[in-house]
TrEMBL record:
Keyword tags: Cell membrane, Lipopolysaccharide biosynthesis, Membrane, Transferase
Domain of life of the source: Bacteria
GO molecular function annotation: Kdo transferase activity
Organism: Caenimonas aquaedulcis
InterPro entries: Glycos_transf_N, Glycos_transf_N_sf, Kdotransferase
Protein name: 3-deoxy-D-manno-octulosonic acid transferase
Amino acid sequence: MIRGVYSLLAVAAQPFVRAKLKRRGVAEPGYLQAVEERFGSYEHPARPGAIWIHAVSLGETRAAAILVRELRKLEPDVRILLTHGTATGRAEGERILRDGDMQAWLPWDTVHAVRKFLNHFQPRIGVLMETEVWPNLVAEAKAHGTPLVLANARMSGKSLKQTLRLAGLARPAYAALTAVWAQTDADAKRFAQAGATVKGVFGNLKFDAAPDEAQLAQGRAWRAALAKPVVMFASSREGEEGQFFGAIREMPDRKGTRWLVVPRHPQRFDEVAALAAAAGFTVSRRSAWTSGPDAADVWIGDSLGEMALYYGMSDVALLGGSFEKLGGQNLIEAAACGCPVVMGPHTFNFAEAAELAEEAGAALRVGSMAQGVARACAMAGAAGGTREASRAALDFFAAHQGAAHRTAQAIRAIAGPAIG
């Protein structure tokens, strides 16, 4: 009954979804690509039997790339179907594809669109990355005979409360999943409370990501050529950059540090550059560099896929999303590059990783942006101040690897042999 009402609302919402895509497409043309795929219409034929992986956005797609790499080790001829919800996720996903692989938008969660998707692609298994569970998607996959699993699964306490408030809709969806493989024991307990069948705690796939060595080397070379330490604000979010620039202005010796800001969302690159200029700083952008950073007060990292470069040229990084009530961004990539992290009070999206990093000495927590900027400057400016923390970050990263292999094996055990 509840899902029936939900389904009617999903159908009624389709005109609004189309209008939203048009609006977003003004700033990000990727949203105007293959729009009809979102409603179950596909231009190209599909070969049955692919392993379908849904990675909604950029972070999930990068985790999916790690999993795909491991799947190809176990099954070299595996065919992959990647689906996404955001333009950045789809653009990143193109880098994963090989001949024979496919890519599409995840269908809007109507019964009609989901059925057309499943009938068209006929995957042998569906793998949802991290959090994406939709009621009709799960129900129709089960009816279709397609096992659907949730991998690298995470659920915050806040998300669990929201799930339990919608228990009549959410619990059947979680219960219909074939398996959930959680990142942590705490995640596993929350998924069990939500009604899911948890079949393993495998850790976080992102610990199995190797940073781009060429980017890392370039970043370190640029850092070595600089006379001043570099503090980075990594994956900054809306509402945080203004605090960051304000905190810098209050620093008594702000000219003694180089400042790098890498916004989480590419559509905000211009906005963040404008915020820095309005705060009275000279600004330069990575996209304009020819032979490395210049002498501007603030650098804007306005490129995709170059986080290893940015971490390589930084002495310490502040963690975006943790200085507002946004749950924090993932600090694992920083650890992989040996870049220590200063995080704010809000890390509920990655609570266990943040706690473990803090225990290992790879990260430290502060209560405000002002404290974070001051602490990062002190670490970066001290002689050898980040050397021990950098080593702790690398050790922390190495100690938590192996999730990709465990997940890939579990997927193949459920999916069975390749078709065709």
